[in-house]
Specification:
The protein is of the alpha/beta class. It has helices spanning 30-47, 78-92, 111-120, 134-140, 146-158, 177-189, 207-212, 216-219, 222-238, 257-263, 290-299, 302-309, 327-338, 347-354, 358-361, 363-371, 386-390, 392-397, and strands at residues 4-9, 65-70, 99-104, 124-130, 163-170, 194-199, 242-245, 248-250, 269-271, 276-279, 282-286, 319-324, 345-346, 375-378, 381-384. It folds into two domains: 4-262, TIM Barrel; 327-397, Arc Repressor Mutant, subunit A (Orthogonal Bundle), CATH 1.10.10. Strands 7-8-6-5-4-3-2-1-9 form a nine-stranded mixed sheet, sandwiched between helices. A three-stranded antiparallel sheet has the order 10-11-12, with no helix packed on it. Strands 13-15-14 form a three-stranded antiparallel sheet. α1 (30-47) runs parallel beside α2 (78-92) and α6 packs parallel to α9. The protein is globular and about 55 Å long.
Length: 400
Amino acid sequence: MARHIYVHNPFCARKCPYCDFYSVTDISCTEAFYKAAVKEVQLLASVIDETTGTNPLTDIDNRDTVYFGGGTPSVPDSRFITDLLKAIKEAFNIASDAEITIEVNPSSVTSEKLTEYFQAGFNRISLGVQSLDDEVLKTLGRLHDSKGALDAIDMIREAGFTNISADLITGVPGETPEGIKRDIKAFRDHGVKHISTYSLMLEEGTAFYDSYNKTIEEYISPELEREMYHGTRAFLNESGYETYEISNSAMPGYKSIHNSSYWNSCEYFAIGAGAHGYLGDLRYGHRDDVRAYIEEMNTITSDVYKAFLEGNESITKSLYVEERLSLEDKMREVAFLRLRTTEGILLDEFKKVFGAEFEDVFAQAVKSNIEKGLLERKERTLRLTRSGLDIANIVIEDFL
C-alpha cells in the first residue's frame, strides 16, 4: 500500500511578505534540526504498522510519495536534505517508482545541489517562481528576477529532472492577465510540466495583510481577479495543461501524486517543525518552534511517540492533536477536499467507503447548490460549475 510522507523544512533566506507558512531565517540550528528529523523518521517507522497509510478513497496512482516542502528546502546544505531522504527511504522501504518532490527557489538552488538531489533519488522539482515580471517579483519581495527563474528551470533540466512544477501567484498589485499568459508560455517553452496557480491571499500576521488589507481592491478589483483566474485556467488548457484541481494544472502524466493524495483523503506522515499529518482518526501537527522540535526529538521515546499517535497529546511538547475525526467528519472532509478537484465527488467511491449515498447524507446542500447552478451532476460525479468555482469556499461551507 502507498505511503505518503511530508517533510517540513523551516529555513528561509528571507520571509516573503505574503507568506504565512512556518519558516525561520536563523539557520544556526540547521544541523541539529535535520538530525532531529532523522530521529523522528526512525521513531515513526518503529511504531506504525503495515495497515497505517491506507486510503479510504481510491488513489489516483498507488505509488509512494515523499514531499520536502517549506520554508525553502534549497536553503540548507544539500547533505542535510539527502541524508534525511536516505533515512526515509530506508525506514519506510520507499518503492523505487515513488514520486519524490523537493521545493526549491531560484535564489538558493545551484547546479551542484540539483545534481545531489537527483542522485539521492528526488525525481520531481517544485520551483517557487511566483511571477516572471520583475516589477511583480519586487512587490512580492522575492530574491530572484525573471532571468534567474528561467535560468533555474534550465539548470533543473540539465541536472536530469523532467518532472518540473512551477508556482504562479495571481491577483498581485501591478499584475495583468496578459502578463500571466506570457509567464505560462515561457514555462511551457522551458519544459515545465506542472503549474500551480494561486490567487493572492491576504493572511493575517503577514506584511501584505498590513499593507493591502484595506486597499487591495484599488489595485485588483474582484472582477479583474476572477478574469485572471478564468483566463489563466483557459490559457493553461489551450497550452496543453489539464486543470485537475482549483489551483493545479499539468500536462498528461504529470499530475502531482502527493498533492492528489491529500484531495483523496489519504493518510500521510509528517516530519519536522510546522509539519501536519493525518493517521487513522487523528489530524496532528508539530508546533511552529524549531528548537522545541529539536529538544523533543532528542528526548522522546518510541513508547511516548506511539502513545501520542494513539491520542495522548498531553505527554509531548512539540507534537499536538489538531482534531479526532468522527465518521461524519470524514464524510464532510471528502466534500471539502474532492470539490476542489475537476472530477468532483466520486459517488460510487463514497458509497463504497461509507455505506451511504452522498446525495442522501448531504441532500439539502446538494439540492440547493444544483438549483443555484453552482453544482452539476455528471453520471456518478458531482462537481462545481464555472459559477461554483468563483465562490467555491461558500459552496463547500454548505457541506461542513
